Amino acid sequence: MLATPDHKTLLKAYKFPAAAWCLAVTLLLVPVAGIPGEWVLQDTLKSTILVLGTLLAAVVLLTQGLHSGRGNMLPALRWHGVLAFPLVLCVYALGSMVWSHTYLAAAEACRWAALGVLMALGLQILRRATMPLLVWAIHWGAVGASAWAAAQFWDGLDWFPQAAAPASTFVNRNFFAEYLVCTLPFSAYAFAQLRQAPWRPLVALSIAFNLVALMMTGTRSALAALLLIGPLLVYALWRYRRALAWAQWSRGSRWLAGCTLAAGVLSLGVLPTTQQDLIAEGNGSTALQRSFLRAGSVMKSQEYTVGSFSVRASMWKSTARMVIDNPWTGVGAGAWEVHIPRYQGWNNSVETDFYAHNELLQLLGEYGLPVGGGVLAVLLAYLLWSAQTTWRMPVHGRAGHDAALRAVALCSLLALLVVSNAGFPWRLASTGALMMVSLALLASGSTRTLVVSRRTVQGLLAISVLTFCGAAIVSAQAMRAESNIVGSVQLLNQLVLHPDMPVPDRQTLQDRAFARLQEGVRINPHYRKLTALAADQFAATGNLEAALWAQDSVGASRPYIPDVQANRVLLHSSLQHPQAAREAWEALAALQPDAPRTRALDILLLRRSGKDADAAHRLLSYFNQGIHDYDLLRFAIAIGVETHDQALAIQAYRLWVAGWPTEAEMQAEALALAPPAWRMEMQQH
User: Fold this and answer.
1) Boundary-marking domain end, from 452, 471, 495
2) Percent helix, percent strand, percent coil in the chain, to nearest 5
3) I want to staple 183 with a disulfide (CB 3.0 to 4.6 A). Which of 142, 204, 406, 617 is the partner?
4) Could you tell me the pTM of the whole model?
5) 330 lies in a domain?
6) How far is 566 from 604, CA to CA, in rounded Å?
7) What is the pLDDT of residues 151-174, one digit of tens each?
8) What is the DSSP annotation of 263-286?
9) Helix, strand or coil for residue 201?
10) Using alpha carbons only, how large is the chain's radius of gyration in Å?
11) Position 331 confidence tier, pLDDT thresholds 50, 70, 90
12) Tens digits of per-residue pLDDT, 656-684?
């Protein structure tokens, strides 16, 4: 039942300082924490911190609730309809475990459940008294993350693995930039609320530092989001100035703070990097240069033909085909990466990516139009309604202060929506947490209260404690799995780097690497990317049996990836497993029947099984259909020379010269292998 006015009064007076501190520390640690080395993925650590910190805050909140009540009457819990956003997606993910990829659907359900708990926790904690603590935690967390990025940009700090520096503790600089731009509205609010004059220049400089760190990344979606929310944020702070502390600042203090902010951006922005890999990218050597050049690159035509935009556009088109093919149910929660190869062309290799780089499209592809589209429509409608409601609120007093906070949350969510069109920030711990906090902040002004009994709170507390323990165990297992698989790859890297290693030592490392891989896969058989890396390294070091075992593991979890099936064909063939190789080829042909690689592997299997006549017949059939793939022509020349099939060799050689005229040296070598009587006719066009 809904609370009576007495319960509302009790709710208003009741505060959760310890729970607020738990949540604040969590929001600060998630972006700052990182693991030197590669034994655990960085976002695994961040997700662990977020989940455990959120659950710990929930335990503290419920424990305090039990000790604050009067008899059986406890402080009422606050709820809001926006909680349906993560709840509906969590329930659908649980349901899709039945018919889609069980593990990935379960992982999605856990993710939405954790984010839902965070949002619900935010509804209980966010008060006028606790909001400054959380805002400052977000701000200083962003400053800490920016400090790592600055050290990587200016000094070449290499403690944390980087796909592309400077990425702070986020592995990828795009992840870092997407997080950072979403924190700037909170930083601006914290700055505008400063009452102590000595702190104002320092905080202004810290915001300038964050802006420069964002520019260092050169992430265009984040820069676009900054350009969009910047004017809106400035206007919001001006509109609600009477409700914020900065309205009481002296004119001199305002000028000092403003000049510090501008001078900080200009002075830090022109400091050059000494890192040659960053300079070699051709985007300038300073933060300002990188931001301007990267933003200007959207005007270059090649960006849309061979650049990163073209790659993303390819994934978006494939995802659109997925939505069209599965409009009602989607492919299942988390299963985008499983099914996306089925909607891509044979010359498209981006199926190795885990996400569509567009959160809205991927949600539609996985959850379908009724659930995914409905949730998105309601969420966007709620945000528009919130913006309209905020606009109509008073601009001064307590209501003006609340309106300013709502404007800050809306600016952060707007930045998140912008970067969500070119990345996957909802799936990362840092940006996902900011999303839930912002939604909780918006909803906190219009919540309903629910009276609960002491027994209910005790039950919720028990569930929270058990969930915390379960999350800790699952996180430890995830880290064990990652540590073993990555450790296997690192051992194999030693073999690649030291080819002259004594045979006994090489075999020992091979055995250790395979044992670690098996242990990691036993814990989690669905680490597609890491297991595939180990498979490639085993193949490179000559351990084909282990490479095949790893590829089979990946194929069992992701059966529609053509690269995996092609690798299985080659490995089975090299290991003298003709029947298994043919079965793997049939799986590949079912995925890409008209791909050049599929045709070439078919000819390869025929040759290795001694069926050169069948191979020659099939090659002639391809040529008659106008199919002149590079590998087919090379196979045809070899078969023609070996079987003395003059017509096949001559036809293939002529087609090769006509299609690839720049390979004169290789073609001369092939010509030298042919009988002298053929050469003159082969060279005739």
Assistant:
1) 452
2) 75, 0, 20
3) 142
4) 0.92
5) no
6) 12
7) 999 998 989 988 888 999 999 999
8) HHHHHHHTPPP--HHHHTTTS-SS
9) helix
10) 30
11) very high
12) 888 888 888 888 887 787 788 787 777 76
Q: Domain of 673?
A: 594-685
The DSSP call for residue 349 is -
Would you say the C-alpha torsion 300, 302, 303, 305 has a positive or negative sign? positive
Both tokens of 488, joined, read: 């296997």
Is there a domain that residue 397 lies in? yes
CA 217 to chain centre: 16
Structure confidence by residue, pLDDT tens digits, 462-505: 999 999 999 999 999 999 999 999 999 999 999 888 888 888 88
How are beta strands 448-450 and 77-79 bridged, if at all? antiparallel
Contact 115, 53 (CB under 8 A): no
Local confidence band at 11 (pLDDT 50, 70, 90 cut-offs): very low
* Reported confidence tier of residue 196, pLDDT bands at 50, 70, 90: confident
DSSP tag of 73: B
- CA end-to-end span of the chain, whole Å? 89
Statement: residue 383 has pLDDT above 50: yes
* 368 touches 93 (CB < 8 A): no
Q: Quick one: tokens of 540?
A: 């490179």
Q: Where are the beta strands (DSSP E) in 228-360?
A: none
More confident of the two residues 115 and 37: 115
Q: Interhelix angle for 287-296 vs 251-269, to 10°?
A: 80
Which residue type is seen at 275?
Q
The residue out of 437, 452, 467 marking a domain boundary is 452
Token readout for 605 is 């299997």
Put residue 349 in one of left, alpha, beta given phi > 0 → left and psi -120 to 50 → alpha: alpha
Which amino acid is it at 644? H
Contact 45, 486 (CB under 8 A): no
Contact 489, 533 (CB under 8 A): yes
In a domain, residue 325? The reply is no
Distance CA(327)–CA(110), nearest Å, equals 24
Q: What is the mean pLDDT of the chain?
A: 90
Cβ atoms within 10 Å, residue 304? 12
H helices of 334-453, in order, are 336-339, 359-368, 374-392, 397-419, 429-443
Q: Who contacts 116 (Cβ-Cβ below 8 Å, separation ≥6)?
A: 83, 86, 87, 90, 436
603 inside domain: yes
